[in-house]
Design brief:
This protein is of the alpha+beta class and about 425 residues long. The chain contains ten helices and six strands. The protein has a four-stranded antiparallel beta sheet, with no helix packed on it. Strands 1-4 form a two-stranded parallel ribbon. The protein is elongated, with a radius of gyration of 36 Å. Mean pLDDT is about 85; it is low at about 15-20 and about 410-415.
Amino acid sequence: MRIQIYIIIYLLSLALVQISQADELYLDNCIKQALENNYTLKLAGYNVEQIKEKKTIAISTYLPQLDFNSSTSYNTSNNYSLGLSLRQNIYDSGKTFAQIDIASEKLNSAEYNLELTRQNLIFNVKRSFYLCLQAQEEIKIYEEEVSAMQEHFKKAKVLYEIGLKSKFDVTKAELELLNTQLALIKAKNNFKITKITLSNIISNIQIDKYELKDELKIELTPEKVNLEEIKSFALKNRPEMLDAQTKIRESEATLSLALSKYFPSLYATSGYNWKGQGFPLTNDWNVGLTLSLILFNGFSTPAEVTTANIQKETAFANEELNRQNILLEIEQVYANLIESSETATITEKLIEQSKENLELAKTRYEAGLGSILELIDAEVSYAQAKLNRIKTFCGYKISIAQFKKATGETERKEK
């Protein structure tokens, strides 16, 4: 009997643990849900699948083309015909290979766009998560401040009623209480908005029933970063750069396709036919070669060549622009990382100092040595220090996410 009781207690404890865990929402859960359910990412994936089929279509033009045809006509006599025809591309001056290359590079571009969409999604989840976490923690801070201001208001009333403090202390304490309550209302509304934003990005979880959780600590400092290595890695691995290089290869294939129209194409053809006015039908067959060459098409080919050359120059310019933008972005997020890291260290000291200052102000006020202004100022400073801390650490986490995205590390860390 005692063993059964122990087993029941153990199972109940496991259930309670699972319930408590279910009420907490961590960043990894949000990222996982977003990657599974976000429709922007799904659309990018569908686009890749479509372009894969277009590549298959491009390859198919180099394979034999077999057609079947049948016809019946009625006039003074009945005419019937059936036939098979086979056509094979022998040589087309590189047109088909150029079309396949174009389709391949378009597929590569779509895959890089899918990866970029995935990385942007992960970053947006992180940013929304920490903004939501910040708003959640700000509510707790304002609720604590409201409780503290209510206590100060009560104490001021008591001291006023026994003649130790003036009416000014009461009105001042009440004014600050109302201001804090107003700030709490705004904080709750801000939390509601950030929850809606996060829930929309995740596309599945209803986060109202969850409390966001994360360990707010310094995980990466600028001293640990080799900026030159990071830049080199980013230029080799960022989807934008890889896509820009794909666009260059695509433009080169487009130019080859345009130039190929100046040269002839050779096809092998064959057929087998049955025809006649009655059954059985007579049959015949044929085999031949077809040579085609565009002599004049209204200056279309020169225009296509010129357009392809412009496209190629544009692709090279776009690659350089992406390179410059990536290097600039890395410098900017690195500067933000330095600021966030240094600020996070200072806010911890501000918390300690403002808390100690508040305790001294409380002691002085209760002893009749300090004023209500001194007490309220200390209370507000302590609350502001806590607000600065949560804002700084959430900002630091966002800076880390920006840095990873800018340097192309999202794939390595989140895969």
